[in-house]
């Protein structure tokens, strides 16, 4: 555990462990917005000031790190991602770069032997048919062109659908019997044969078959994934991990994080978003003594996470009106209103913060109704409940969210792929008030930024570029998505630093470069506030520090 340094100790003069000097710090602390140097003792910032002032504190043992005049910010915070899913994707064929089914097939073919050797399966992830020349969902017929002998499963970027080949269908017994599922679909073709597309919980048929890793494997995967995050300037994450594997692996996951903390091997701060879909699962979790705020060093239990709908790409986001491009559906609600209210009430009354995945306007409205009812019945001081994604909105809905003081966990990087489909899915009018970060900022709502990695990469810089410009960082000549709904650079930086800390009840411990806070910082190649907007995406992360320890350096 960290020990906070008192003002007396600072005035009395203490030995500094590390001094970071010759930097261009933008502290995000209004009392002291700019500085050249920062002194750190036991992981805590003890002084922020000029090179002269701070270097004068150095003693023989003090480590001095020259930042070469580079720009530095509080470490980036990613308020919603899936760390262990990301770790698992590292052993999968990455298909997000494919621009056609043919390209996806050849990527899989090229890595067939290498990537299938661990357990005999070829897994792929990250594909999005909306990025393809012919935007058609793949089926087993496409995957059979990769292999007829090795089972294959490729998961869509949204994680709401997985496609498998004939060998996998055979191994899973789906050619003999198709199970009835409450929250999932095993799709069949016009002849009643399984076509390889598994939606929502039907994907678990594959993951159940594949089993879970050992504790040591899991620890290695987590540590490795956290180091990747640190290399992108991230010093704190909120991660939703509990359903990464099928079966009850919550104890295994928490144990892996605990052991990494004990061994000094957890590179970044982790705030667990606890996906517990049913009252029984939540009760079992509470019975073990866990609740929001439970702390084990760098690992902390965060909010109860609930999933209220699917994704816009797969047309499973739950909408008030039928889809503009498919009037036969309004998407999928994963709870009915009474069930959702019951879950929220239970979490709320048991001291859990609550964060609900809602993408469609009907899903958001349902969550707002439930929050309103529960918070009125059982008032609680500062619960910091919130809505994850919160994409399809109108102004009235935003006003209601504001009234309840709900946090928004936004993913500006989603605009990269979604800007091509928003108007198709919901029509121009509703589209123009959706992905509307400006409306949240104008109302002084709590808006934190995240990547939903591995849905998108967790690189914060391109994510910030999207928030500021509304453009696709990979195709910046394409028109922007409603630039009037974008954020300023300062609002964006706040969203990826202080607001991330606030969303985790840690704004007094991190989120700005201030005396008494953890020395979590990032050094960048350029001054984010000075470069022209279109060059933000090219900024490089040069160094990342957590508790004053350098976790990544390219200086
Ligand atoms: Zn997510």
From TrEMBL:
Listed name of the protein: Amidohydrolase
Species in which this protein is naturally found: Aminipila luticellarii
Bilayer-spanning residue ranges: none
Molecular function per GO: hydrolase activity, acting on carbon-nitrogen (but not peptide) bonds
Domain Amidohydrolase: 65-550
Top-level taxon of origin: Bacteria
Keyword tags: Hydrolase
